[in-house]
Sequence to fold (318 residues):
Amino acid sequence: MDHSGHGMNMDMDMPPFTLGRGLELSPDPFFLTGCLLALALYGWGVLRLRRRGDAWPIGRTLFFVAGVATVLLAMCTKLNDYGMVMFSVHMVQHMIISMVSPILLLLGAPVTLALRALPVAGRGRKGPREVLLALLHSRYMKVITHPAFTIPLFIASLYALYFTPLFDTLMASRTGHVAMMIHFLATGLVFFWPIMGVDPGPHRPGYVMRMLELFAGMPFHAFFGIALMMASEPMVESYASPPASLGIDALADQHAAGGIAWAFSEVPSVLVLLALLFQWYRSEERQARRKDRAADRDGDKELEAYNAYLASLHSRQG
Fold:
């Protein structure tokens, strides 16, 4: 469905934006189907583990459901319709789907769930689980989750898209708009996965490196917002002449979009930092427990050896 065609008659009488209007339901068929499918598959995985008598942390399920809910919020409400004609609303969509949804979805550990729930194929056969494992260990995955790829991609998603004619080309049709949103979501997933994803991945640096990776992308994000806020003319053709019924000024709306991009650049930093610190704490705890278990297993051999050593010294002195 070409949006520019029906846009002329539909967008003309869109009432001014309010949060209430923005949150009315207006499902995008592609994203609605995708979200329902994701929830169904995740639910199937959890049930399969439960039936087998395996536990799956409830927190992970809640994170995943929250992640899907944020995608639905951005793509299946009137925010999606207003986002076609208002830069500020589009920017809210962009920020949610590229920075909030990916973090929540990744904390749901969908890949780990899939690897545990999918049946192991027979010898010499390849089932979905084997394909997934092969993909995780593939060279392709190593490349697309490496910071040398994800950081520039994350930055290019802002500058190369908004400051070139590419954005207007994509906005000219519903399909282009959906493709752009899929790109934002995918970029967010590959950017945050190596940093704070729970799932196994090919590129998994230490915690300090992960924090550095996180902060490497954020200043560019903030600067992008500032560039929009300081511009003295509309920079994106699609939003240069908003429908009169909205009662907005294109430049003021663009400044608002810049403010949103700038403010949002801090949100993932805080979310990811909390997740990272928690994961770090948990891994330290696990190591401590492992050491305790090893000590129990050895019957505290080290301690006995040390006592024997002290006793031998004592007898020598005697």
In short: The CA atoms of residues 140 and 202 lie 10 Å apart. Residues 1-11 have pLDDT under 50 and may be disordered. The chain is about 75% helix and 0% strand.
